[in-house]
Amino acid sequence: MIKIDKLSKQYGDKVIFKDLSLTLQDGEILAILGPSGIGKTTLIKTLTGLEEAQSGEATMDGQDYAISDPAFTSQIGLIFQDFNLFPHLTVRENILLAPLTVKKMDRVDAETKANDLLTKLGLSEQADLYPYQLSGGQKQRVGIARALAMDPQVIAYDEPTSGLDEKATEQVVDVMLTLKKEGVSQLVVTHDLPFADKVADETFDFEKEVKR
Questions:
Q1: How many CB atoms lie within 10 A of CB 9?
Q2: 91: pLDDT strictly greater than 70
Q3: Which PANTHER family match (predicted)?
Q4: Which of 203, 207, 156, 202 is nearest to 49 (CA)?
Q5: CB atoms within 10 A of CB 183
Q6: In which element (H, E) is residue 49 found?
């Protein structure tokens, strides 16, 4: 279980959210709902260390952390809205990069893991293609594979269905529900209510819950 308590973020005098608290159970999908521009993306960037919080604490598996502690933020894998794949690297190389450079994994072990993820996410045939050769849904699945390659405690998604057609959206739904069955905790920021209805165990209404 992950619990976030009294998380606050502001830019200068502008308060984005204040004293925010939420809980994500093991193997749960929590959808954070609300209109665009309200601060949902800032929330997950703060949880993953890409933005600095003014205050806040986190508890993960019974251990307490400052919200900005890399030991906490590194346990949350982020899938970006615009995918952020490296255009000069193949699908396989995109997945391998962080395990090899950040975790210093043995290359054979990293390649075995990458191949397993490619198979799991239906990307084996695209392994040697470059991002420009992929559909939006395939790019989204590569982003998920890249996050999973780092063995995070939580996968966080920023508007994962944005710009995707119905078929690609269903593929993302299928992947998320499969990961849920495997016990992966997932946090998804979205304003796509039909999508949230399909995947979420619980919802967090950002507009109603957040203090400013």
A1: 22
A2: yes
A3: AMINO ACID IMPORT ATP-BINDING PROTEIN, PHOSPHONATES IMPORT ATP-BINDING PROTEIN PHNC
A4: 156
A5: 9
A6: none
Question: Cα–Cα distances in Å, from 38 out to 15, 45, 51, 120, 210?
Answer: 11, 14, 16, 34, 10
Instruction: Report the residue count for the chain.
Output: 212
Residue 15 is inside which H or E element, if any?
strand 14-24
Give yes or no for a contact between 159 and 127, defined as CB atoms under 8 angstroms apart.
no
Amino acid identity for residue 126 in this structure: Q
Return all residues near 127 (Cβ < 8 A) that are at least 6 apart.
Answer: 90, 91, 92, 115, 118
The CA radius of gyration of the chain, in Å to the nearest whole number, is: 17
36: closest CA among 206, 163, 211, 212? Answer: 206
The model's pTM: 0.89
- Give me the residue label for tokens 């209805």: 197
Residue with the two structure tokens 């400052």:
66
What is the full DSSP assignment across 168-206?
HHHHHHHHHHHHHHTT-EEEEEES-HHHHHHH-SEEEEH
Terminus-to-terminus CA distance in the chain, angstroms?
Answer: 27
pLDDT digits (tens, 9 = 90+) for 167-200: 989 999 999 999 999 999 999 999 899 999 999 9
CA distance 201 to 46: 23
Strand partners, 59: 3, 64
% of the chain beyond a pLDDT of 90: 85
